[in-house]
């Protein structure tokens, strides 16, 4: 029990925690870059992530008598996932495809979006309560809040969904 109170035991656990936060943050970002087809970036992140992982796991395995190391390892894993997600949200890399459904103001909304430089495809459709306009818009992820504000300003009751996309070729991309 005295071992748990030593500064060396706490320093080892904090080091493992820091290594694991770094490792998992890089791993989370790497997976997201893989999904977006960014091979070079994924390779670099994977390279450094794996080195940090080996250092962290070997530190835990070489000092199994210190339960603080296991706690630092687990807490670092969980924290690193969340930090990686936060960093990725702030980077906002890639494209998002938005589907906007408006029962009354689809044409005006499409015009407002086009005036801001976004490519919009209008589709007439039948909803539960009658005809609606469905707008198909692909935007940079960093532009989603701006598009949401434009949509809300035109029609506060518009229904919007989004999905990640990878541009394949051609068409209009505001990028």
General description of the model:
- The protein is 59% helix and 19% strand.
- By secondary structure, the chain is an alpha+beta fold.
- It has two domains: 90 residues, no CATH class; 71 residues, Alpha-Beta Plaits (2-Layer Sandwich), CATH 3.30.70.120.
- Strands 2-3-1-4 form a four-stranded antiparallel β-sheet, with helices on one face.
Q: What order do the helices and strands come in, and which of them pair?
A:
Layout (H helix, E strand, L loop, with lengths): L1 H4 L1 H29 L3 H24 L4 H25 L3 E8 L3 H10 L4 E8 L2 E11 L3 H11 L4 E7 L10
Antiparallel strand pairs: 1-3, 1-4, 2-3
The average pLDDT score comes to: 89
Number of domains: 2
Counted beta strands: 4
> How many H/I helical runs?
6
Range of helix content:
55-70%
Question: Ranges with pLDDT <50 over ≥5 residues?
Answer: none
Secondary-structure element sequence?
HHHHEHEEHE
Task: Provide a quick synopsis of the model.
This protein is α+β, with helices and mostly antiparallel strands.
Features of the shown structure:
single chain; 175 residues; alpha+beta; Alpha-Beta Plaits; 2 domains; 4-stranded antiparallel sheet; 6 helices; 4 strands
């Amino acid at each position: 029990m005295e071992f748990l109170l030593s500064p060396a035991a706490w320093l080892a656990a904090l080091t493992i925690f820091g290594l694991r936060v770094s490792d998992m943050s890089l791993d989370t970002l790497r997976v997201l870059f893989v999904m977006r087809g960014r091979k070079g970036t994924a390779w670099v992140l994977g390279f450094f992530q794996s080195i940090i992982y080996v250092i962290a796991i070997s530190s835990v395995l070489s000092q199994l008598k210190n339960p603080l190391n296991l706690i630092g390892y687990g807490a670092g894993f969980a924290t690193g996932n969340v930090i990686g997600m936060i960093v990725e949200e702030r980077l906002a890399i890639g494209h998002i495809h938005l589907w906007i459904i408006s029962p009354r103001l689809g044409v005006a909304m499409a015009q407002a979006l086009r005036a801001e430089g976004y490519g919009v495809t209008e589709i007439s459709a039948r909803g539960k309560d009658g005809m609606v306009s469905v707008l198909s818009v692909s935007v940079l992820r960093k532009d989603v809040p701006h598009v949401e504000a434009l949509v809300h300003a035109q029609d506060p009751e518009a229904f919007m969904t989004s999905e990640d996309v990878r541009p394949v070729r051609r068409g209009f991309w505001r990028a």
